[in-house]
Amino acid sequence: MLKVLKFGGTSVGALDRIQNVANIIKKMKDDGDDVIAIVSAMSGETNKLIEYAQYYTKTPDLKEMDMLLSSGERVTSALLSIALNEMGYKTISMSGREAGILTDSCHTKARIEKIDTSKMKDAIKDGYTIIVAGFQGVTLDGSRVTTLGRGGSDLSAVAIAGAIKADVCEIYTDVDGIYTTDPRIEPKAKKLEKISYDEMLELASLGAKVLQNRSVEMAKKLNVNLVSRSSFTPEVEGTLITKEENIMEKPIVSGIALDKNQVRVGMYGVIDRPGVASAIFTALADKNINVDMIVQTRGLDGTTDLDFTIPTTDLEICKKVMTQFTAEAKNIDYNEAICKVSIVGVGMKSHTGVASKAFTALANENINIRIISTSEIKISMIIDEKYAELAVRALHDAYELDK
Ligand code: ADP
Ligand code: ASP
Ligand code: MG
């Protein structure tokens, strides 16, 4: 079998953890498998590098940020390669560029355009175990290193697995699979044996960082056999992320996600005429700002209120963009003390009363809902951040997800 494995920050967070990863790979090699392992930076490393840059400025040059951030993954890829080599295996570490990962030039959030697998294929043929530095690529013209957005090593792994047609892509982390909600928040959370790509994509997009959302999207597109499991208990089977038709029993609600990295931007007394929303959201899109929920209230006296949410990481750029629109609104404010809780389940499509149950559960805890948005398979609610964990547990109970 050709296996693509990915080891996250905690799995390579110390030298003995890297040795543990080497032992996991050794077992597979001894079983006759070919292995390409993608590694993250040691846990905390990427945050530390971001803090270093912020010592000088809140808005550093993004090309330089990519140069800086990509270094963390290079360290762990070389260390793992050295460890395995010492155990008697032929290994080679590769940066994103060496692995042939070509991206657009949207620095710090680059998209993979193409993977040139020739170098990896040759190395496998020659009996090497390949260790790829995750989270990074190179611009199509080869001029600059890029990174793929936070949690991007998941994407590196899935994209490589898809491109090289691996038999499986296993994402090793510090929990042994996908749970009904973050087990650190709700200890009663239950592990799922399988989950559909679509539900996993929603959970990931709505804050469940166990998998990066773009990696799930890519897995669905390329039909990658994706498994989430733990490097701390590698003997335990993880969760399979697969096509909806491969799942017999479809629960109404599969999971609850929480996202604390959200800011609510409030524009009050916005001039109510055609083109205003278009101008604002085009300007935000031009800066690659991910706008999520948008609510416009009923106009009054020729003005209206416009609320939307963005990721905290985009706040500084958003503030800069919004300076163009100060004349269009009476007031613009930014509230970081909010969070988004979401309920996800494919069964929602065909059941009624799912939303009302959520609202009642939060009302019973005296939690006020500030914005609501729904789609076919999810309900999201913006609430005050201080109620985040309480809300997750209340919703988990309401849908009896521990049963
Ligand atoms: P890595 O560093 O290995 O990429 P992450 O920290 O990005 O790991 O993701 C793993 C974490 O995701 C877990 O420790 C867990 O707290 C969190 N998590 C959030 N939601 C879920 C969920 N539904 N199931 C499992 N883990 C979850
Ligand atoms: N090191 C990067 C991050 O912390 C990428 C990753 O771990 O997937 O976001
Ligand atoms: Mg991660």
UniProtKB/TrEMBL annotation:
Matching InterPro entries, A to Z? AceGlu_kinase-like_sf, ACT-like_dom_sf, ACT_Aspartokinase, ACT_dom, AKii-LysC-BS, Asp/Glu/Uridylate_kinase, Asp_kin_monofn, Asp_kinase
Q: What does the UniProt keyword field contain?
A: Amino-acid biosynthesis, ATP-binding, Kinase, Lysine biosynthesis, Nucleotide-binding, Repeat, Transferase
Is Kinase included in the keywords of this UniProt record?
Answer: yes
The record lists the catalysed reaction(s) as: L-aspartate + ATP = 4-phospho-L-aspartate + ADP
EC numbers on record: 2.7.2.4
Q: Which CDD domains match?
A: AAK_AKii-LysC-BS, ACT_AK-LysC-DapG-like_2, ACT_AKii-LysC-BS-like_1
**One Pfam short name:** AA_kinase
| Superkingdom of this protein's organism | Bacteria
Q: Which GO terms describe its biological process?
A: homoserine biosynthetic process; lysine biosynthetic process via diaminopimelate; threonine biosynthetic process
Q: Where is the ACT domain?
A: 265-346
Q: What protein name applies here?
A: Aspartokinase
Q: Which lineage is the organism of this entry classified under, starting from the top rank?
A: Bacteria, Pseudomonadati, Campylobacterota, Epsilonproteobacteria, Campylobacterales
